């Protein structure tokens, strides 16, 4: 029978060199994220160890889940049970890192439990008889979430210039992304993105010298620049040199909560020269950037509690406006944002909420408002490629997993190319989201 019989947990490194159990971790974390348990023992890993979370999996979650005799494919019940076992609203008792690791493992076990899955597919989703012998993770989650066919392959948003909390340069804005919307397929988009990335490297080397091509947390370059226009001009040059003008668009995540102080946004927060901007100044700056450059997506332009600025800006913003710290993948925050008309897209980070079931609920709620869903990695990542399958499963049409560089970033892109190839081999219909990256599921 497909019952849970064993669960083990262990510390593993993430890309920042901190031990974690397969679950990633952020640097520019929002205050409303579920709690990640760290040991705080300064003698080990500078207090960043996760032995308490490991112990919670092994001594609390494991025996309780095994005793309940859940079917491994019944992820909703497993996740719901773990939430109750934790009993807090932010998973601070057992740790979102402990719970999420189990939730992800159970999703994989569910996909592997073929007999049980057939049962699930037939009883719960009567319309779709499932006849495959092996069930890929993206299909398991797709059926679980009721995502309609055909499959949509996402546009990869490659973060090629790193600033903010993700690098040591003086650029306040955290991420400048390139999005090959004009590619023919996901695989083609990876090629185009990689070519622009390599071209950018040459541009930076000739402009600033060899020291400018070192990379930040997400594999993007961190040259000695500070203004957003400088970053975008560099991207324009690299894209032009590849002859991809019009085919590669841009996304920006200023991660502005990090430089919000006393109602002012300080663009000089990483240097000795402060450059304080009011919300109105920031709104004008964003409008200018969107007018001058092919920017199609803007994430966290304002702080996590600056609802007024979000709502005001959304009235005139014509591009995708993504809430990350604002929403924290949390349905309560998403509902507030829906009422306030604060944004039009959800950034989906599984470790912000701590179970796969809740991440699916968050995505479905966002879709119900006609929003887009943008799947995201964390700056402290692991080589786990779970979010690649999740992106296809939910048909989100776009994801960000850093630059086409560094193992933990490319693991997701490589998995997505495998999925694209597998779908072709299976002769099932799929399309590349392209220019419609944000409208794959809008109502
Ligand atoms: C982000 O802000 O979107 C991000 C990926 O960074 P972090 O993981 O540091 O929150
Ligand atoms: Mg962000």
TrEMBL record:
The keyword Magnesium applies. One of its GO terms (cellular component) is phosphopyruvate hydratase complex. Residues 4-141 form the Enolase N-terminal domain. The keyword Lyase applies. Its EC number is 4.2.1.11. GO terms for biological process: glycolytic process. The active site is at 218 (proton donor), 349 (proton acceptor). Keywords: Glycolysis, Lyase, Magnesium, Metal-binding. Substrate binds at residues 166, 175, 299, 324, 376-379, 400. Mg(2+) is required for catalysis and for stabilizing the dimer. InterPro entries: Enolase, Enolase-like_C_sf, Enolase-like_N, Enolase_C, Enolase_CS, Enolase_N. Its cofactor is Mg(2+). Pfam families: Enolase_C (PF00113), Enolase_N (PF03952). It catalyses: (2R)-2-phosphoglycerate = phosphoenolpyruvate + H2O. Mg(2+) binds at residues 253, 299, 324. Residues 150-440 form the Enolase C-terminal TIM barrel domain. GO terms for molecular function: magnesium ion binding; phosphopyruvate hydratase activity. Pathway: Carbohydrate degradation; glycolysis; pyruvate from D-glyceraldehyde 3-phosphate: step 4/5. Belongs to the enolase family. This is Enolase.
């Amino acid at each position: 029978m497909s019952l849970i019989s064993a669960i083990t947990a262990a510390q593993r490194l993430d890309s920042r060199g901190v031990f974690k159990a397969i679950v990633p971790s952020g640097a520019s974390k929002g205050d409303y994220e579920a709690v990640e348990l760290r040991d705080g023992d300064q003698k080990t890993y500078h207090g960043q160890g996760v032995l308490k979370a490991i112990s919670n999996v092994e001594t609390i979650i494991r025996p309780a889940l095994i005793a309940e005799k859940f079917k491994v494919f019944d992820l909703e019940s497993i996740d719901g049970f773990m939430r109750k076992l934790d009993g807090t609203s932010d998973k601070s008792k057992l740790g979102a890192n402990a719970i999420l690791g189990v939730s992800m493992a159970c999703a994989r076990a569910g996909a592997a439990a073929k007999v049980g899955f057939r049962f699930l597919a037939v009883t719960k989703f009567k319309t779709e008889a499932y006849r495959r012998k092996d069930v890929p993770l993206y299909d398991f989650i797709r059926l679980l979430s009721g995502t309609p066919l055909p499959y949509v392959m996402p546009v990869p948003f490659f973060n090629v210039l790193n600033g903010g909390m993700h690098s040591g340069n003086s650029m306040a804005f955290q991420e400048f992304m390139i999005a090959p919307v004009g590619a023919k397929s996901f695989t083609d988009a990876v090629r185009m993105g990689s070519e622009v990335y390599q071209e950018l490297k040459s541009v930076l080397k000739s402009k600033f010298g060899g020291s400018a091509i070192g990379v930040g947390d997400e594999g993007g370059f961190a040259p000695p620049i500070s203004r957003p226009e400088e970053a975008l001009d560099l991207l324009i040059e690299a894209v032009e040199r590849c002859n991809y003008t019009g085919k590669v668009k841009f996304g920006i995540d200023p991660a502005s909560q990090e430089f919000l102080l006393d109602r002012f946004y300080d663009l000089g927060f990483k240097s000795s020269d402060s450059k304080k901007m009011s919300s109105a100044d920031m709104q004008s700056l964003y409008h200018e950037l969107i007018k001058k450059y092919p920017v199609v997506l803007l994430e966290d332009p304002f702080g996590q509690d600056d609802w007024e600025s979000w709502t005001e800006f959304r009235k005139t913003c014509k591009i995708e406006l993504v809430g990350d710290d604002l929403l924290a993948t949390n349905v309560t925050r998403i509902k507030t944002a829906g009422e306030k008309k604060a944004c039009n897209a959800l950034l989906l980070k599984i470790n912000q909420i701590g179970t796969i079931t809740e991440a699916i609920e968050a995505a479905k709620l966002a879709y119900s408002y006609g929003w887009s869903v943008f799947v995201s990695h964390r700056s402290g990542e692991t080589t786990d490629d779970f979010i690649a399958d999740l992106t296809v499963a939910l048909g989100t049409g776009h994801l960000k997993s850093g630059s086409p560089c560094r193992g933990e970033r490319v693991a997701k892109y490589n998995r997505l190319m495998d999925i694209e190839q597998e779908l072709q081999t299976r002769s099932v219909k799929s399309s590349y989201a392209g220019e419609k990256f944000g409208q794959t599921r809008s109502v």
